[in-house]
Amino acid sequence: MATAGRRRVKLEEEFHDTEKKLRRTMERHEDITVKPCQQNHTISVSTKEEIMERKSTFLRSLVDFEFGPPVLNLYQYVAEETHLLWSEARELFLLSSSSEPKKGLFLFHDNEPDLRELCWKHFEFDPHSTSFSAEERHLDSHTEVVCVFVVGELFWKNSQADALLEIENQTRFLNKSHVFFITDTDEAKDQAVKFTKKTKCCYLTHVFQVASDKTPLYDAMYEILQSQLDNFLSDLHSRASTGLVRDLTPKLEPFLEKLRSRKKRHQSSLTKQCVSKIKSGKELGIVGHRLCGNVLYVYEDDKMAIDAQKKADLRKCIEENFNGVVCYKSISDVFSPHCAVRWGGPLGNGITGKMGTLGIFGTLRDTIEGTSQSENNIIALSSGHLIHENVEAVLSVSDRIGTCIWPANSSDNILDVSVVKLDQNVIDRIQTVILNERITVGEIPIVDLRYQPVFKYGAATGRTVGRVGVVDDFRLFDEDVMTILARGQRTNKFSNNGDSGAIVLTRYGGKLHGVGVIYGGCLKVPNFQNIREETIAVFLRRAMDRFTNATQKTIELDRI
Questions:
Q1: Between helices 272-279 and 308-320, what is the axis angle to 10°?
Q2: Between the N and C ends of the chain, which has fewer C-beta atoms within 10 Å?
Q3: How confident is the prediction along the chain (560 residues), in pLDDT tens digits per residue?
Q4: Quick one: 187 and 327 in the same domain?
């Protein structure tokens, strides 16, 4: 009996020694779990993969979105553009997967009936453009991704120990600054807070309800993207200094700088004195300006007869009031309307033969009475330079559709829209809808428009997608204009000849907004980071307001 007792004590000591060794191993290698069984003195060792393979309480979805909260516009822009650079580099070098710029987040959820509605309420991801894909990859300590657990009131009512253990196992491998919980009631939030206090799986400020400030989540998305780009840049620097590496590095660094300085308040380097001098140059042919970093482009109309000495004096004053390089460009060399001089296409000038795009239909209403005066007050909008008042609008040589009633002159008209009053007998034949949605034409704050994703339907290039670039420090004829860069491959264009007049659309605040009208193209600006040819667009709201102020009539836009 004494011998049996000593043997039992020895076995227990060996058991505890083995358990301690395994636990130390677990601390060094995060891919195993130790579970001792005291009844038969065995030790159960589970790898992380085996834990994952057990029946899961949660479904995992990778969430991607196109239209989200404005605070993520820069995130989307940088992620898309740098992923193109990364893809180019991957074809030449062996790159680490941790350096691949990725966007989106992981959502851990049950059989949620409407994930789109959930993501709209909690994250402002527009339901029309949000996509979900099942995600099977294992998460470990090297995984950099935002993980969001949906733990509403029903979860806590029905939750079993296995479900809570699963959350612990999943979050054990993750940086707790990247873990979040979303709840739907105060009670559910209290339960989630208790759980996070106990497990320390994330910060208490990462437990959200619908109305909670989501800044920590958005900051985490930016933090992960910046880490990926740092790894990408480090990968490039570790390569031999070849021409290809030297070419890619300066393309990547400006995007990293945008992320580092994203919270800094944007402050124009243009002084009031400099802007005042530019504005004073109207009579000397100055029609606008654009600021690109430390380079100021001043646009001039060469057609105007100008006193050479006065022009030289004004240039000197502008240069003295700007701390950088000033370049002078002829407006005709920089901007070109996107009209096609050909017959055929959706909308044309019956005299010149220029063709553009019929942007959208609408109804003309009197501002005083507020009602349509007659049945034939259906109009169509296009670009102001395409056609002007008293000129026939056509679809082809012999296919008249109406008469233009605005603007008075279309020559080089950058700022207006053309308003064409349609003939009654063509309305049913030509009116069509694409999305069957009404659009809002309210002004979106300038700060929210920067990097905002947009799309348009043009006669020449059809549906294209882009992103708003410049929305400030760019003025022509005393008005702001916007630039748009195409998304996707670097050879893509947002618009081309024949697209003038197309409406620039975006989704903002749950609504479809019309923000601009295509005017034309802009040559690439030397020494500037934009790598594609830009599209110039007029602000739609301002153009329509000019029409209303001049005619005392409003335009109620139809569905698009």
A1: 170
A2: N
A3: 455 555 555 555 665 566 555 555 544 444 444 444 444 444 444 454 444 444 567 888 999 999 999 999 999 999 999 999 998 888 888 888 788 898 899 999 987 668 999 999 999 999 999 999 987 767 766 778 899 999 999 889 887 788 888 898 888 888 888 999 999 999 999 999 999 999 999 999 999 999 999 999 999 999 999 999 999 988 888 876 677 777 888 889 889 999 998 887 767 778 889 999 999 998 888 989 988 878 899 998 877 767 889 989 999 999 999 999 999 988 877 777 777 643 334 677 777 778 889 899 999 988 765 454 555 689 999 998 888 899 898 887 678 889 999 998 766 677 889 999 999 888 888 877 788 888 999 888 988 999 999 999 998 999 999 999 877 788 888 888 899 989 987 778 899 988 999 999 999 999 999 999 999 886 555 555 555 678 999 999 999 999 999 999 999 998 88
A4: no
HSE of 191, CA atoms in CB hemisphere, 13 A = 18
Answer positive or negative: Cα dihedral of 287, 290, 296, 297: negative
Looking at the structure of the chain, the number of domains it has is 3
* 251 and 355 together in one domain: no
**Residue 108 within a domain:** yes
443 and 370 in one domain? yes
Instruction: Give yes or no: residues 122 and 190 share one domain.
Output: yes
Rounded CA gap, 112 and 155, in Å? 11
**Residue of 457, 555, 440 lying closest to 502 (CA atoms):** 457
Q: φ, ψ for residue 289 (rounded to 5)?
A: -155, 165
Q: With b meaning 16 or more CB within 10 Å and e meaning fewer, what string describes 149-166?
A: bbbbeebbeebeeebbeb
Helix (H, G, I), strand (E, B) or coil at 558: coil
Burial class of residue 73 in the structure, from the number of CB atoms within 10 Å of its CB (0-12 exposed, 13-18 middle, 19+ buried):
buried
Backbone angles phi, psi at 166, to 5 degrees: -65, -40
Domain co-membership, 240 together with 379? no
Q: Give domain status of residue 275, yes or no.
A: no
